[in-house]
């Protein structure tokens, strides 16, 4: 192999790497948490392709702890109605503890996100009735035609949940690469007993979250705002 051939191969490899990085960056930059879906279902082959991509997720000791229930059509509607029927009942203890408190910058980011959402749908600050109605959209699955329930094995504890979090991120990115919008919902983990009972899951399955997905309703005002991301200086400490 000549030096010219080696240099040409290196250049092609670098160009391919740049193209891959640019494509990945584009997906992350344009993906958003969809809060308004059309009723049009996603074809089963597309869902299967998304799941197959997400299945490549790295996990601790390759345990692959995620088990996923995908509900569509009548099954998704039955689950939606079950959630709405239980909305007025006292909340259940989650399988994984909620954050103890949002402090400092985390509180600021959470507040900014909430205010941007409320502003997009015309909810005035302090309007508790309207904010409660918007919160109920979680149990409506934001009108999505599909929902995925993500669970882990109880014996794996937080490590299983971390692995499932990586799977969720990959699922949503893979979905967006195929034009499918999604939103991860911790709200669905607020009814773990209902979820296990409704889907006939074993007692040792721990509910991590749900993912509602489908085609985004471009006209829905909640889909008009975007969150920001902190710069590297806020997230990274260098030790050279």
Topology:
Layout lengths: L2 H28 L13 H11 L12 E6 H13 L18 H17 L7 H9 L9 E8 L3 H21 L3 E5 L6 H8 L5 E10 L17 H4 L5
Antiparallel strand pairs: 1-2, 2-4, 3-4
Helix pairs in contact: 2-6
Report what the structure shows.
The protein has 240 residues and is of the alpha+beta class. The chain folds into two domains: 30 residues; 167 residues, NADH Oxidase, CATH 3.40.109.10. A four-stranded antiparallel sheet has the order 1-2-4-3, sandwiched between helices. Helix 2 crosses helix 6. It is globular.
Quick summary:
Helices cover 46% and strands 12% of the residues.
Keywords:
12% strand, alpha+beta, NADH Oxidase, 240 residues, four-stranded antiparallel sheet
CATH fold assignment of the largest domain: NADH Oxidase
Low-confidence region ranges = none
CATH class of the largest domain: Alpha Beta
Strand coverage percent: 5-15%
Mean pLDDT: 94
CATH architecture identity of the largest domain: 3-Layer(aba) Sandwich
Distance between the termini: 38 Å
Taking all Cα atoms into account, the compactness measure Rg is: 20 Å
| Number of spatially distinct domains | 2
Secondary structure tally: strands: 4
Q: Helical segment tally?
A: 8
Structural class assignment: alpha+beta
Give the helix proportion (percent range).
40-55%
Relevant CATH superfamily of the largest domain: NADH Oxidase
How are strands sequenced across the largest beta sheet? 1-2-4-3
Categorize the overall geometry: globular
